[in-house]
Amino acid sequence: MNVPFKSAVPMNDSDTDHHWSKESQPFATAATLLRYMRQGWKLVPQAEVKSFAYHGGRHVDVYYFMLTKNEHHLEMPVLMNPVVRRFITHHQLQVTRVSAQGVNLREATPTRQPEAEAVNT
Hints:
Radius of gyration: 14 Å
Oligomer: single chain
């Protein structure tokens, strides 16, 4: 289901038009994900999430979205935020939790792992 996602704040591409490359930036912004969708990329209806733990019980979730356009495929990792949560709900994505045990977030490259369990957002 690839219905356009309506953000609470109207955005033009010029508002969010910045380059993102997985080689130089480990995570994209939610605005980048939305821009790719507006530019015709199609969303695969499954996503994966990894939780990275910090000291003191803090953690951050990184969601991995797969996008396709023509013959091109792109995995886009995005840090969890309210826009991402609404995006997942709006597109009715099936989200699978993937283990990130022992991974240092600062050194992590955004790749998926085979061990997984289904989660509800």
